[in-house]
Specification:
Chain A is mainly α and 311 residues long. In chain A, 77% of the residues lie in helices and 0% in strands. Classes of the chains: A mainly alpha (311), B mainly alpha (312). Chains A and B meet through α1, α6, α7, α10 and α11 of A and α6, α7, α11, α12 and α13 of B.
Chain lengths: 311, 312
């Protein structure tokens, strides 16, 4: 087990390096002068020269990359072209809000998705099953930003029971997290259902039934534990997708998180901020996947160090 | 792998020419088998009610896109400011947008954009991802490890984020959105095909092909990849849906199609400001995206069942 974890950790290193190269590359791949890209479109020639010296942009690329990594390790991601503040400060302020939103969305998605999936599986082909699977299909297909606007229209404009945009109170959280969680809930309902149906067909369930155990015990004690293994894997992936989806949801709800920061930064050509947010979101996702894989290894005894290729 | 192939061929290649014949026959048989297989899969698909609904939805959108010039009631770019933000009427079937353009006509042309983005991005994903996955799985070893780490890096950018990174570098516009969503789908195909190749390459007909002295390229693309087609087709159907959603998201964020291109995501985004007074500008494009994505997902589900010998 520990060897598996060590192997899995080792596999993370090249990914982290690769992510840093891509993020480093963003500014170098944009057509034009990287110094101008970092300094901003309206920067004076003097300031552009200052930036060129500060980031050693006149040096060979590998030295630039080395500097980038060293600066990153020291928490220096440069300054925002737009606000002039440190990128880490900008991100530091907004990151907790995105995490809050994504976490609540994930909790909502898990509660709704898993319970709908269980009920659908145990009452297969019932009205509930068909209805919830239809809702799940629509939930996966609906664009998240459209869903956001429709919920705004209904609850904020027509019913006036919830605020349309902004932050501050619990009420402000409801619509954004509900929107963000919809697609995940739908997906989790479908996965839980099919995983549950698979498990319910297996021999040990038949054995449990023949022992005369109550159906409730069979479903919630025997089957659920096994059926949730694929759900846990998807959970990590979903958290990543939620972080990506936050880009869209935060834009609609004027939620000042990192997703909105990223979009604004791209539109304003504020490349240091783009680099910082992309780096943060990618590294966070790598970390989440690492944690999920390790949890998965504890949950599924079939995985051990010999077969642990990390895939 | 190379070692084992030589062992295999020493056993099988007692008569090398017959192995070559066998391999040729396999290819020929595979072609004729595939046609009847296709008919069988299609029959199975037509028995699936949800998939038929999906086919109708997709067919409807394709027809609407092809015949957009005939069906549209107005020029999609024609602005009549005095008629801005009107609700649906007999003159404007779905109403007008913030510049007085006919929403119905704009959405017809928008369907063309969404469908072509979906198709082209999948073409990009398949044509890059499939060879990467096939070669990686077939040769194994260091090459495989290297490719896998590279794919890991691409997967580290969750969901729409990889597409956003590509658009940041390439710039906005429909063409770049196609490339961005296509690039974002490469790791999906590479992973999928690698897995299938690992399973297929142990089959006896691959050993026979080796024994017959067929080149690696021919074995990979004529023998192995055709036998991994089922998962590729299923994934592509879902991937079209995902790419359409991503592209609409990019358009919504202002990172996709630019004005005055009638792309659904950007139409919807422009209508946002008027949602209190004229929500039709937001509602209808969103419904169009929803149904198009739903159509591809339904067909994808159906294809997955139809191509899976277990559920047939």
């Amino acid at each position: 087990m520990y060897q598996y974890i060590a192997r899995r950790l080792a596999l993370t290193i090249p990914v982290v390096i690769g992510v840093s190269i891509i993020v480093f590359g963003i500014i170098r791949l944009i057509p034009g002068d990287p110094a101008r890209a970092i300094a901003g479109v309206n920067a004076t020639p003097q300031f552009i020269e200052q930036v060129r010296v500060r980031y050693a942009l006149d040096q060979p690329v590998y030295i630039q990359y080395g500097n980038f990594v060293v600066n990153f390790m020291q928490g220096d991601l440069g300054n925002s072209v737009f606000s002039g503040r440190a990128v880490t400060t900008e991100i530091g302020e907004r990151f907790p809000r995105t995490m809050l939103l994504a976490t609540i969305a994930l909790v909502i998605a898990t509660i709704i998705g898993v319970s709908a999936g269980i009920v659908s599986a145990t009452r297969r082909n019932s009205i509930f099953d068909n209805a919830s699977m239809l809702v799940a299909l629509v939930g996966v297909a609906a664009p998240v930003f459209w869903m956001a606007l429709m919920l705004q229209l209904l609850f904020a404009v027509q019913l006036s029971v919830l605020p349309a945009t902004g932050i501050g109170t619990i009420q402000h959280l409801i619509l954004p997290s509900l929107t963000l969680g919809t697609a995940s809930a739908a997906l989790m309902a479908r996965i839980t259902r099919s995983s549950m149906l698979d498990v319910l067909r297996q021999d040990f369930i038949t054995t449990a039934r023949s022992k005369g155990l109550p159906e409730r015990v069979i479903v919630y004690k025997h089957a659920l534990k096994n059926a949730l293994i694929p759900v846990v894997t998807v959970l990590g992936l979903q958290f990543g997708i939620l972080l990506g989806g936050a880009v869209l949801t935060e834009t609609v709800f004027a939620w000042p998180g990192v997703g909105r920061l990223l979009v604004d930064a791209i539109l304003r050509r504020d490349y240091p901020v783009v680099q910082g947010t992309v780096m943060l979101l990618a590294l966070l996702f790598v970390l989440i996947n690492l944690v999920v894989d390790i949890i998965y290894a504890f949950l599924d005894p079939r995985i051990h160090y010999q077969s642990g290729s990390g895939e | 792998m190379q070692m084992r192939n030589t062992d295999m061929s020493s056993i099988i290649s007692a008569d090398k020419s017959s192995a070559a014949e066998l391999s040729e026959t396999h290819e020929a048989m595979a072609t004729s088998k595939r046609t009847s297989e296709f008919a069988e899969v299609f029959r199975h698909l037509l028995r699936n009610r949800a998939a038929v609904v999906g086919l109708f939805i997709i067919g409807g959108f394709i027809a609407a896109s092809i015949f957009a010039p005939l069906l549209s009631t107005h020029d999609p770019l024609d602005t009549v400011l005095s008629n801005r933000l009107q609700g649906p009427s007999s003159e404007y079937i779905l109403g007008t947008d913030e510049l007085g353009r006919d929403l119905f006509s704009r959405m017809l042309y928008g369907g063309r954009i969404s469908l072509s983005i979906g198709l082209i991005s999948v073409l990009i994903g398949v044509s890059v991802g499939v060879p990467i996955g096939a070669i990686s799985g077939y040769f194994g070893g260091k090459l495989d490890i290297l490719t896998q780490r590279f794919i890991d890096i691409m997967i580290a950018f969750p969901g729409i984020l990889l597409a956003i990174v590509v658009v940041t570098v390439l710039g906005v516009g429909v063409q770049n959105v196609m490339i961005a969503t296509g690039v974002a789908s490469i790791p999906v195909y590479a992973r999928l095909v690698r897995g299938s190749v690992l399973a297929v390459k142990e089959q006896s007909y691959v050993a026979a092909a080796h024994a017959a002295g067929l080149g690696h390229a021919r074995i990979i693309f004529r023998q192995i990849v055709p036998n991994c087609l089922a998962p590729i087709i299923v994934q592509s159907t879902f991937q079209i849906a995902t790419s359409i959603l991503w592209a609409a998201g990019l358009g919504f964020l202002g990172l996709g199609a630019q004005a005055p291109t009638p792309e659904w995501g950007s139409i919807l985004s422009n209508g946002r400001a008027y949602i209190r007074t004229a929500h039709h500008v937001t509602t209808f494009p969103g419904l169009a995206i929803l149904f198009m994505v739903l159509g591809f997902n339904l067909v994808g589900d159906g294809l997955r069942d139809a191509l899976d010998p277990k559920t047939r």
